[in-house]
Specification:
- The protein is of the alpha/beta class and 208 residues long.
- Helices cover 31% and strands 22% of the residues.
- Strands 3-2-1-4-5-7-6 form a seven-stranded mixed beta sheet, sandwiched between helices.
């Protein structure tokens, strides 16, 4: 997420970390697959890839990808979420920061994949979305991937209506130099059709 004016902060007050973690723990206990995003990304990666989990929250995805052998860095603006991530995986790299100012965090560029799951893009501070897409693109190596998942209607968002359209998001990606490779309706790879309430998108940065 970005800054204290982002939609996530308005919804949670920046204090959602422990409850968010408990929610996914309950889902796992009842047999739900809570690793769909990680499995989706792993299928796109070569062994020991570098992954940037942008808006990493409690680290659920980055921790799972690290268990699968990848090198993961998590960034989030919500300190309560990062506190959970640090507790669960103290040896992984967790950074408190604004995605719209990712270049101020001292990250070494050249990531194989940047991930913005969990409605990160729709919950950004209004007006910062294009800048965040540019920042995530700048973190990639040539040929690297930007993977995003976002709700497109109220049924798939913690908001009364979607703050952006898929066409707007695609336009920001084009402006950043990305090319759409694949799009699905779920992290399980169900086909995307116009009007779907959720989109999982894979954009790539063309190789030099």
């Amino acid at each position: 997420m970005t800054g204290q004016d982002d939609r996530w902060a308005e919804l949670t007050g920046g204090q959602a970390g422990e409850e968010y973690a408990r929610r996914f723990a309950r889902l796992a206990e009842t047999g739900h697959d809570v690793h769909g995003e990680a499995n989706f990304c792993a299928a796109l990666l070569k062994p020991r890839a570098r992954v940037l989990d942008a808006g990493c929250g409690t680290g659920r995805i980055a921790i799972r990808l690290a268990e699968m052998g990848h090198h993961c860095t998590g960034v989030d603006v919500d300190a309560s979420m990062l506190a959970v991530a640090l507790r669960e995986a103290p040896t992984q790299e967790w950074l408190l920061g604004d995605l719209a100012r990712l270049d101020t965090l001292g990250l070494e560029p050249g990531f194989d994949l940047a991930l913005a799951a969990g409605n990160v893009i729709p919950l950004l501070a209004p007006g910062t979305e294009p800048a965040v897409v540019r920042q995530l693109t700048a973190a990639l190596r040539p040929g690297g991937l930007l993977v995003t998942g976002m709700g497109l209607d109220a049924a798939h968002l913690p908001l009364p209506e979607a703050p952006l359209t898929l066409a707007e998001f695609d336009d920001w990606c084009v402006q950043a130099g990305l090319v759409l490779r694949q799009r699905y309706a779920t992290w399980s790879g169900d086909p995307y059709e116009p009007g779907c309430g959720y989109a999982v998108s894979v954009h790539s940065l063309p190789a030099a």
